[in-house]
Every structure is written in C-alpha cells, then in structure tokens.
Amino acid sequence: MNILMMYTSMPHTTGAYLEKALRKVSTVKTCGPTIADWTIRAWDLESIADRVTPHDIDLKEGTLAEVKKGLGGFRPDWLLFVESGVWFDMPILQDPSLPKACYLIDTHLSPADHLQIASRFDIVFLAQKAYVDIFRERLGKPVFWLPLACDPEIHRPHDVPEAFDIAICTSPGKTDRRSRRLARLGIRFNVGVRRLFFEEMARFLSSSRLLFNSAVKDDLNMRVFESLAIGKCLLTDSVPGLADLFVPDVDLVVYEDADLVDRVRFLLDHPEVADRIGAQGRKKVLAHHTYHHRARSIVRILSEGVSFKTQGVDHVAHSYV
Question: How much of the chain exceeds pLDDT 90, in percent?
C-alpha cells in the first residue's frame, strides 16, 4: 500500500513514531511543514532540535501544486493525516480521487474543532475512546479507536541506579491537578520530575522505583504506554479506555486522590509487588501496544476502505482496532 502521510515534522510526536512503523509495513511518502524555530523555543524543545528533519515533500507554500510536484511518480492509495499540534493548510483534501484518513490525538482538548476537521476525511482514527461514538453519530462515517503506543527501540529499560521513589517526565504548570498531586507526593517521597525525550527519558525513568502519570482532561496519553515499556510499576489515574487495555493491579496501578499516597507507600514497602506489576505491564505493552501494532491496524483498515465507502459500516468500538 502506498501512503501519503501528512503531519508537521516534529521528532517527538505520534506522527514521527507512526511514520517509522508504517515504513516497515507499507510504502510511505511524507508531506508537510517542518516545525518552526520559534515553536521549538516556545515549546522548550531545544534539546531535540538536532533531530528535526524535513519531510520527503517539505511544504513551504502549502499549495496543491507543491504537493503534486513533490509526489512525482508516487501514486498514493491513501492520504493519512496525523495530528501533531501544529496545523497547516492541506489543499490536497480537495482532490476527490484520493481517499483520505486522519488520526486525531488530542480530541479531549478541542472536540468541536476535531469534529470539523474529521468531517473532511473518509475514515477517522481517534486516540481517545471517549469520543468515538460521538464522532460516529455526528459524522456518519467509519470512526475507529486507535490508542497511542510505545516504540520499544526507544522506550526500554536501562541498567542504571535507582535514584527516585517515583518519577515522571513532564512540564507541569503551577496550578494544575498534576502539579498538586506531585506536590503531595514530594512532601513524603523522593520524587523525580524532568522534561526529557527519547533515550534520556528512558534512562531517567529507569532510575526510579515507581513511575507516575496524571492525565489532562481524562486523556489516555503517550506517557502511559511509554512508561509501561520501561518495566517499572506505573501508577496512573483512571481514564476512558484504560481498563479496556490494561488490568488494574496486574499490568499497572490505578489510583484515586484519596488513596494515592497510601498506594505509593505500599508499593515502596513491597518491592516484589511493584516489580511483578512492572514486568507484567511491560510484557503487555510490548505484546499489544507498540506503534508497529498500530501501523498494521491502520494498513488493514485502509485496505478495507473501499467497502466502507461504497457499502457503509456499522463499527461498534468496544475495543481498539
């Protein structure tokens, strides 16, 4: 299958991880703008600026003519747009001969905008399960739940000394719920908080006995899958879709604010329990939730896309694709 993949080129995003996986199961040509220098500075991404690379078709003007010139002799079977947080014009969506799919990640932050964007595509993948039924009802087209994932080549254990009781890679605000939870933990435990990416992130997380996640507006985020791949016991709050993928107290630990401190203390006092859960969580995520799994799901769904467009589909998203 030939896929024209479109997203703003940023090395730490879902698009970049998915591109890597899709290239192993299909023929891919990428298209889109490159993250601007001012965005790198504004988002505090200077540490990974050297990893930024332009797409096969590096959009400068954003015109249809520019895209078609870049395609050359490449004939895509599908266009796949992946949200990266930086939007850009896609005049190629006006081409009625090219089937189009999108993968939207942060629907929890702007559901109305995402609904409007999704209306321009033939098939829609959503990272957040809570919105699948809503989008299917509003759009009347195939909408699939495609959770985020991990890259085992990057998100893996490192043999380093354990320096923290519990850790997270994030940039918390001063007043958000995540910061308040971390402050509570910091009073009682040795908490590690860093903003790191790729191998540095994996090494840092490996240096903690436990790992921590706190969702934003109930999103099932990248951090869940990446942390599980490290092989340390992950504590996370409950969000839609989590229990469909992982078993609480087997693959990971689900906390509420009322029992967060007690759960951390129990796991630190019983390292054999934490180690068992950490190992099982890593086993589960490697077996079912890598970007290779997601890439194969996308190719399978797109391969069946002609029948969806001609016959319709009544897909009930009880589980991910």
Answer: 76
